C-alpha cells in the first residue's frame, strides 16, 4: 500500500537514489521513492492482506511448472525511466528476473503487477501509479483488486500494442491475458466477510 506522504524523518529533503537505497536497505520499514522524495508505506488492513495473499496463492498455483514466478509485497520494483521504487502487492516475472545492479532486490522486468485497493490509495493506484507503471517496457498487465466491491480491473496490452481494460465482478472468472490463466473471483476474494 502506498500513501503519498513524505516520511517525517526525511520531509522534503530530496535524496539521491543511492541515498534512498542506503536508507531503505538499513530500515525495518518499507518506503517508496520518487524523484528524490521518500514516502512511508502504511500497514494494510486484514481484507487487503487477505486478498493480496489469495492473489499470490492463486497465481503461484496456476503458474507452477511455467517460466513465470510471483513475488509478494516484500518485493521492490524499480522503474528506471521515472525513478520510482515501489512495492506492488504482487509482482510476476516471466523468465529470469533482472535487478538493479544485480542487487537481487529491485526488479526491473515485471510482466504483471497487481495492487489491492484501499480507500486511501484507490485514486493513486488507478491513476498516477498506473501511468508510472506503464513506463516499464516488460509490463504486459496491471491488475487492480477491490475488496470492497469484490471486483477486478485488468489493464493489459492487446494485440495492437494498446492498453485495454476488462472488468470482472460477481461470479465472473478473471482471465489474465498476459499469462493465459483463469482464476474465479470467488477464489480471489475468499475469506472476506
How does the SSE layout of this entry go?
Blueprint: H1 17-26, E1 31-34, E2 37-40, H2 46-62, E3 68-71, E4 76-78, E5 85-86, E6 90-94, E7 106-107, E8 112-116, H3 122-126, H4 128-133, E9 141-146, E10 151-157, E11 163-168, E12 173-176, E13 181-184, H5 185-188
Parallel strand pairs: 4-7, 8-9
Antiparallel strand pairs: 1-2, 3-6, 4-5, 6-8, 9-10, 10-11, 12-13
List its salient traits.
disordered N terminus; tt1808, chain A; 13 strands; 6-stranded mixed sheet; 193 residues
Quick recap of the structure?
This protein has 193 residues and is α+β, with helices and mostly antiparallel strands. It has 5 helices and 13 strands. It has a single domain (44-76, 86-188), classed as Alpha-Beta Complex (tt1808, chain A), CATH 3.90.1570.
CATH architecture: Alpha-Beta Complex
Task: Note the run of SSEs as H and E.
Answer: HEEHEEEEEEHHEEEEEH
Oligomer: single chain
So how many helices? Answer: 5
Radius of gyration: 16 Å
CATH superfamily: tt1808, chain A
Total of domains:
1
Query: How do the strands of the widest beta sheet line up side by side?
Result: 3-6-8-9-10-11
Mean pLDDT: 92
Strand content: 25-35%
CATH fold-level name: tt1808, chain A
Class per helix and strand makeup = alpha+beta
Taken from the alpha-carbon principal axes, the silhouette is: globular
Q: In total, how many beta strands?
A: 13
CATH class: Alpha Beta
Terminal residue distance: 21 Å
Q: Helical proportion?
A: 10-25%
Describe this structure in words.
- The chain has 193 residues and is α+β, with helices and mostly antiparallel strands.
- The protein has a single domain (44-76, 86-188), classed as tt1808, chain A (Alpha-Beta Complex), CATH 3.90.1570.
- Helices cover 22% and strands 29% of the residues.
- The protein is built from 5 helices and 13 strands.
- The strands form 4 sheets. Strands 3-6-8-9-10-11 form a 6-stranded mixed β-sheet, with helices on one face.
- A hairpin with a 2-residue loop joins strand 1 and strand 2.
- The chain starts with 16 loop residues before the first helix and ends in a 5-residue tail after the last helix.
- 33% of the residues are buried.
- Mean pLDDT is 92; it is low at 1-8.
Amino acid at each position: 500500500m502506498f500513501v503519498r506522504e513524505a516520511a517525517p524523518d526525511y520531509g522534503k529533503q530530496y535524496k539521491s537514489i543511492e541515498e534512498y537505497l542506503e536508507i531503505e536497505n538499513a530500515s525495518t520499514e518499507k518506503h517508496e521513492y520518487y524523484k528524490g522524495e521518500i514516502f512511508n508505506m502504511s500497514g494494510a488492513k486484514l481484507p487487503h492482506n487477505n486478498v493480496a495473499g489469495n492473489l499470490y496463492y492463486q497465481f503461484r498455483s496456476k503458474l507452477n511448472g511455467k517460466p513465470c514466478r510471483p513475488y509478494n509485497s516484500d518485493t521492490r520494483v524499480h522503474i528506471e525511466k521515472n525513478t520510482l521504487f515501489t512495492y506492488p502487492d504482487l509482482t510476476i516475472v516471466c523468465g529470469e528476473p533482472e535487478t538493479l545492479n544485480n542487487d537481487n532486490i529491485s526488479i526491473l522486468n515485471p510482466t504483471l503487477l497487481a495492487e489491492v485497493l484501499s480507500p486511501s490509495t484507490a485514486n493513486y493506484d488507478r491513476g498516477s501509479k498506473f501511468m508510472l507503471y506503464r513506463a516499464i517496457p516488460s509490463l504486459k498487465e496491471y491488475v487492480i483488486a477491490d475488496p470492497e466491491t469484490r471486483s477486478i480491473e485488468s489493464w493489459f496490452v492487446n494485440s495492437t500494442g494498446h492498453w485495454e481494460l476488462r472488468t470482472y465482478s460477481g461470479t465472473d472468472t478473471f482471465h489474465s491475458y498476459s499469462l493465459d490463466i483463469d482464476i474465479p473471483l470467488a477464489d480471489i476474494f475468499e475469506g472476506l466477510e
